[in-house]
Amino acid sequence: MEQGRDWTWFGIDISGKSLKEAERRHKTQQEDKKKQIQKIYLMETKADSDSTLFRSRLPQDLYFDFVSMQFMANLLFLLNKLLKICLKLSNQGIVLMTITDANVLVRKMREFTIKDYEGNYVYSKNQYFSLKFKNLQFPKNKPFGYQYYFYLEDSVGFKEDNQIKYLPEYLTELQAFEQKAKEYNLEIIENLNFIEFFEKYKQKHSNLLKIMVKPPSDD
Length: 219
What we know:
One of its GO terms (molecular function) is mRNA 5'-cap (guanine-N7-)-methyltransferase activity. There is one protein chain. The protein is of the alpha+beta class. It has two domains: 7-99 and 174-212, Rossmann fold; 102-170, no CATH class. The chain contains nine helices and eleven strands. A five-stranded antiparallel beta sheet has the order 5-6-7-8-11. A two-stranded parallel ribbon has the order 1-2. Strand 5 (114-115) and strand 6 (121-123) form a beta hairpin. It is globular and about 55 Å long. It starts with 6 loop residues before the first strand and ends in a 7-residue tail after the last helix.
C-alpha cells in the first residue's frame, strides 16, 4: 500500500465465516497498517446472485484500484461476463486472479480418472477432495461454460450420508480469456502456474510465507 494514503476495503464472499476471518485479521494488524484502512465493508452473498445487486450497494463514484478474485474468476466463464470486472475498475487498476490451471486439470483427468456408475469421469486420490467431469471433450469454438464438479473437505461442497455433494466449477480457457480481456482494455501482465509463481517469488517474499506457515513444533 502507498504510505500516507487512506484506503477502503470491501470483502464479498459467499461464506460468512471467511468474512469474519477477514475482519479478525484486520483487527490484529499492526496499528500503522490498520490506520491506513479507514473503512472495511463486509458483504455476504450467494454464488448465483445478480451482480447488479452488488453494484447498487456501492457509491456511484467509487472505483477500485485493486481487485482480488481468489478462485472466483472461473465463474465468469459460465456466461462470458468478463465485462463485470472493469465496470468499477479505476484507470491503471489491477486485478489479481487465482484460477485453476485448466491444462493441468484436464491432463490429470484424462490420465488418472475412473468412471462411476453414472458414466462420469471421477478423479479422487484421497478422502479430502474429488473432481468429476461428465465428459472430457471440449469444442475449441465454445470456450465458455466448461463445467465440472469439485469437492474439497470443509471448503467446497459437503458430504451427506457419506456421499459427496459436489459444487459446479468452470474451466478457464486462457486464450479466450486473454482475447476477451483485450476487448475491455485489460492487459494480462503476468500468467504463472502456482509452482512457477512460487519458484519465482519465494525469495523476494519469504517474509509472507513465514507469516502464513507456522513452523513445526519441537514437541
